[in-house]
Write a structure and sequence with these properties.
single chain; alpha+beta; five-stranded antiparallel beta sheet; three-stranded antiparallel beta sheet; 3 helices
Length: 138
Amino acid sequence: MKSYRKELWFDIEKRRELINITSFVNDCLKESKIKEGMCLVNAMHITASVFINDDESGLHQDIEEWLEKLAPELPHSRYKHNTYEDNGDAHLKRTIMGREVVVAITEGKLDFGPWEQIFYGEFDGKRRKRLLVKIIGE
């Protein structure tokens, strides 16, 4: 069995961003030369998420609004975590959205259902952030 590992880095310009990373993961899969196996993609920051969904702008707005209702950023004083930081909401948003995805690899391709894409969700950005792609198989 072969193993491949790569860190991908992103300069996050806003506090919250959703980035379609499917093409980056596909590039990793090609680099790995693995044809059958599994691909793990996970956030390397406690205020970020990796998830699968549709790449549709209305849905992205819906996700943003839904998360903000569940864990509003303001007022910062609402979170006990915010003694030294102001990102308590980002930790909760990450918990809701999850840390990673695992996608099957079949015949050298990510084995997706219709419309599925991989996204990196950052909830406390404005700096450089990374994620991990780990592929194992034959």
